[in-house]
């Protein structure tokens, strides 16, 4: 209780000072136009438009806050990227929101699970199994602005999304080296073939990787503070990937497919996410 009171006082002080919360972000050093990196060149979301979208504020051991995104997949669980939670001490989960300062739901968590082969001692390394589950301490109540989303099925786990319209959402940077967004934003992206993804990223692109690039404007992308956010296919109702990195204008971003991990999801949570119904 003492820690919670002190921590919340610390958080209030940081927010009062207008601190910009930024997440460490791994860039692909083989791409030479790093000065062109930028985030979503998209649109502000309406409340309830992306009710599965959650925001994370995570405290590290240097008492710094980072920001990430996540997907609500159950009343007690959200899905995110493992390097959002590796070597951190405390997670705050916000859901049912478009403005980060005005969420319907808030919960703290000290319980999260990174995929076992993810090296949590080196979270800034690009890793192929960058996926994690967070258990919230207060169960969520679904509303028009807060709903769970289906996770990509095992049967769909290795589907090709080449040239398909996809979309992602988040609170990441809105232009090159600019501030993060207070408003939830979303953008169209376009699926990239596994062959092209592998040609660009080599061994970092596995069968569990989806790549997606801009849809029709080269600045359309995800970037800092969008780690862990979901990518969806068209207007589908399932998470096809979890953002793991890549924010260079014109180049694809990398997402981890959740479909191949259902055995681990069930082993960790005791829930078969493929059989859930609202």
Automatic annotation (TrEMBL):
Keywords linked to the UniProt accession: Signal
GO molecular function: serine-type endopeptidase activity
GO biological process: proteolysis
Pfam family, one: Trypsin
Domain Peptidase S1: 39-270
Keyword Cell division: no
UniProt KW Signal keyword: yes
InterPro entries xref list: CLIP_Serine_Protease, Peptidase_S1_PA, Peptidase_S1_PA_chymotrypsin, Peptidase_S1A, Trypsin_dom, TRYPSIN_HIS
Superkingdom of the source species: Eukaryota
Protein's name according to its UniProt entry: Peptidase S1 domain-containing protein
SMART domains: Tryp_SPc
Signal peptide region: 1-18
Organism listed in the record: Leptidea sinapis
């Amino acid at each position: 209780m003492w820690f919670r009171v002190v921590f919340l006082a610390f958080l209030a002080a940081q927010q009062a000072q207008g601190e910009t919360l930024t997440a460490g972000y791994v860039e692909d050093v083989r791409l030479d136009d790093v000065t062109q990196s930028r985030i979503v060149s998209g649109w502000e979301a309406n409340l309830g438009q992306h009710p599965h979208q959650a925001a994370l504020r995570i405290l590290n051991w240097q008492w710094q806050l980072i920001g990430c995104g996540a997907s609500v997949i159950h009343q007690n669980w959200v899905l995110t990227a493992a390097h959002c939670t590796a070597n951190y001490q405390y997670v705050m989960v916000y859901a049912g929101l478009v403005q980060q300062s005005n969420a319907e739901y808030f919960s703290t968590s000290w319980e999260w699970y990174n995929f076992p082969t993810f090296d949590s001692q080196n979270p800034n390394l690009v890793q192929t199994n960058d996926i994690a589950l967070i258990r919230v301490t207060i169960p969520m109540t679904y509303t028009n602005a807060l709903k769970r989303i289906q996770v990509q099925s095992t049967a769909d786990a290795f589907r090709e999304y080449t040239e398909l319209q996809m979309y992602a959402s988040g609170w990441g940077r809105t232009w090159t080296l600019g501030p993060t967004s207070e408003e939830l934003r979303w953008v169209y992206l376009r699926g990239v073939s596994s062959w092209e993804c592998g040609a660009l990223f080599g061994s970092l692109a596995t069968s569990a990787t989806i790549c997606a690039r801009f849809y029709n404007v080269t600045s359309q992308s995800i970037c800092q503070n969008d780690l862990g956010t979901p990518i969806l296919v068209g207007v589908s109702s399932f998470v096809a990937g979890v953002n793991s990195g890549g924010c260079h204008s014109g180049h694809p971003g990398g997402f981890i497919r959740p479909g191949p991990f259902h055995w681990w999801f069930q082993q960790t949570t005791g829930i078969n996410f493929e059989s859930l119904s609202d």
